[in-house]
Amino acid sequence: MHEVRRRPAKSDVSMDTHAGELTLKPYHRHHHDHRDLQPPTSVKASDALPLPLYLTNGLFFGLFFSVAYFLLHRWREKIRNSTPLHIITFPEIAGVVCLAASFIYLLGFFGIGVVQSFISRGFHDSWDVEEDNNVMIKKNGGGCTPAESLACTLAPVSRERVVAPTIQEPFLSGDDEEVIKGVVSGTIPSYSLESKLGDCKRAAAIRREALQRMTGRSMEGLPLEGFDYESILGQCCEMPVGFVQIPVGIAGPLLLNGTEYMVPIATTEGCLVASTNRGCKAIYASGGASSMVLKDAMTRAPVVRFGTAKRAAELKFFVEDPANFDTLSVAFNRSSRFGRLQDIKCAVAGKNLYMRFSCSTGDAMGMNMVSKGVQNVLDYLQTDFPDMDIIGISGKPSAVLHNFHFWIHYRVMYTVNDSVFSICILSSSGNFCSDKKPAAVNWIEGRGKSVVCEAIIKEEVVQKVLKTNIDTLVELNMLKNLAGSAMAGALGGFNAHASNIVTAVYIATGQDPAQNVESSHCITMMEAVNDGKDLHISVTMPSIEVGTVGGGTQLASQSACLNLLGVKGASKDSPGSNSRLLAAIVAGSVLAGELSLMSAIAAGQLVKSHMKYNRSSKDVSKIAS
């Protein structure tokens, strides 16, 4: 595996190879070899087509989907009318022929290149590329000699519009410098390095070096080594150039439902781990906390449109009719072993109908799972409501759809204009779910796991560990978390700092950090009990969205944190139990954080502790001088 290094050189490019290690000396991005070189030309198979390639592709795309729709519509009518399927008319015969012809064309255009990319991935002896600026990097042994091959990559090129892009082959050269120059000059797209090189780490190193040369800014300090770039390919991050280090601290033990947990907290905020740890200590000394998962249901809400509001209302009544629920459930559940429809709530806005589907998702966070089930139901409803116009489905493209879109964009850039992009644009939520946005529907109905966690803190613990008293805490909670949040018009923000704990645990365990928006919905309650001698504290969190499989949970660091909590992967004995336990631990951690921070505010310790633990110990005046 090649390692890219920077050496303090000014303009020359040279390569030193010692024991198989490639060392690069930076060059100035505007340096060119001024030999009179012309971009090579080649005869393409597409030159024989009567139409430009992008029009031909568009024609066959349109033919394929229109004919497929025609045939499906005709067969559905035959099934309805009990007409034998083997009796076909001349238009149907023509449709089958057109479908087969368009399928063969599209398979030949796309499929061959994919097969070739897998076959030739392991070979790195020569390479050629043609991209949207009509530049061809020639193979060694072609028109340019090996010594001239580098100059060929930097030759002046025509900026004419691309008419016929050719099939692109994986890089087969072991020369990183040529690839870097290609990325810098724009002849090699940065996003395609992984598929062309077949080495994710090498691709990241090349992309990183090219980025430094293009921007003129160093990325020293951003680590490259020590990360498995194969693990994020196609599912976690595109075009990586390194990874960000976030320290992980441990708070605990958190005694929750009779079991001790050491909670990983990934943060750069001083005092957060120490404060949460103190809350855990107070809870432990008082006998522990208890939690209950009230509801477990991920939601997705497509929006459909009709010609009249009456038709939208008719579908609303149909979907919400208990007599139709079992039929809709069968359609919904067929795409997943774990996704099970629980409820559908509808809202009408003029001619538009918003349908909020709720379903269990096992140990996955489950938005893609719900989206597939919702699509099944919409396909079923389309039969009885053919005038239904589906506007949006899923909040984000599934992994398959995303990879398909990425591959199509790579293979036929500019050949079908923006039609590929419309797939993802239309696959958007109706925002009645609601995902990654503060919304009353999540605060009231819940989304993901709805959890309540409580503890009774003894008076001596409040005084000795938390350094305050019960009456002061109860009054502060009322004035700050309840009345103060109401004055601010808070939506689900009736707490001191629930989002601090939620986000830190999410990052450590591989959850989606953006979902801290609704997952941090929390109301903190405090009350004096047992004749005022003890403190009852609780947090109610209706929208904790977590999973223990999929997404970032499969990365090594995040997987280790999940393993520390005993919730790594899917539960084989009771599907969904690991994700529910993780949600309960999140709520318990929030309870500890709320208890400690409120106590610090009540005792006047907040500013003092932050000045001690959240400030740099370096002399800033000396650093500035």
From TrEMBL:
The chain crosses the membrane at residues 51-72, 93-115. It is found in: Endoplasmic reticulum membrane; Mitochondrion membrane; Plastid membrane. Pathway: Metabolic intermediate biosynthesis; (R)-mevalonate biosynthesis; (R)-mevalonate from acetyl-CoA: step 3/3. GO terms for cellular component: endoplasmic reticulum membrane; mitochondrial membrane; peroxisomal membrane; plastid membrane. Its EC number is 1.1.1.34. Signal peptide: none annotated. Its main location: endoplasmic reticulum. It is a multi-pass membrane protein. One of its GO terms (molecular function) is hydroxymethylglutaryl-CoA reductase (NADPH) activity. Keywords: Endoplasmic reticulum, Glycoprotein, Isoprene biosynthesis, Membrane, Mitochondrion, NADP, Oxidoreductase, Plastid, Transmembrane, Transmembrane helix. Pfam families: HMG-CoA_red. InterPro entries: HMG_CoA_Rdtase (IPR002202), HMG_CoA_Rdtase_CS (IPR023076), HMG_CoA_Rdtase_eu_arc (IPR004554). One of its GO terms (biological process) is sterol biosynthetic process. It comes from the Eukaryota. Belongs to the HMG-CoA reductase family. This is hydroxymethylglutaryl-CoA reductase (NADPH). It comes from Populus tomentosa.
